[in-house]
Amino acid sequence: TEKCFHSFRGCSKNAGSWFGISTVLIIIALTILTTATAKCKERQTNYWKSVTILAEEAILCLFGIGFVVSAFFQIRKLKFSIATRQSRVEEFLLYTAFFFSSNYTISNIILAADFEEEDRNAKSLLHTERYLLICRCVLNALELIQILIQTHMIQDSFHRCSDKVKHQITKPGRQSIVALLGINLAFWIQQSFQLKNADILFLMENDKGTYGWILFVVTMPISLFYRYHCTVCLSQCFNKLYEDE
């Protein structure tokens, strides 16, 4: 019984690592599946790709919000220091990437809502496309919430350190940080390779496709940088949070 208890305790300590690794591997597999499958001439046959990517985003956003909230409340147990534990460059890059990522997400919501309203008024939109566009708007709003609270959590962790031996041993919030590392990396993989082949905004035929193309070409790279930079910041917090100043 004691051996089982220690085994369970060891697994719980690595739960965040297993979750992050599993998430990234699943997203890689789904990305290969959607990108390797050729687009059919009939749009309806490609909708399964949009459903897949929307389901991925829904799960990633919900888990992302949950782990951010969990990490935030656990990290608040650590000592707050006015002096930042990260370089000013890292903090500046985080805010810059956050600004462009928020603009990209909000613009995405506006574009999807505009497509849905225009085609609904023209009565030329299939019900499936309407539902997919509505889901796209809702999930982008959910992602915006995740981005907001995650940026605040990372910024707060820049000023935290462990002055107690107990915190240096237990490392509160570390497993949530590891899980967020996997979630942000999964988002980066999905948006880099899967979005253009599976998202409903790319599958639709619309005279505003040029605006969508400009949106993705101009603002999307910085949005991708936000996910990448978050993985960098979180990986630094993985160790620095549990050191004394």
TrEMBL record:
Protein location: Cell membrane
Annotated transmembrane regions: 18-38, 50-72, 92-111, 131-151, 210-228
InterPro entries on file: Otopetrin
UniProt keyword terms in alphabetical order: Cell membrane, Hydrogen ion transport, Ion channel, Ion transport, Membrane, Transmembrane, Transmembrane helix, Transport
Chief place of localization: membrane
Record-level GO cellular component terms: plasma membrane
Keyword Transport recorded: yes
Membrane topology: Multi-pass membrane protein
Coiled-coil residues: none
An annotated Gene Ontology molecular function: proton channel activity
Family to which this protein belongs: Belongs to the otopetrin family.
Protein name: Uncharacterized protein
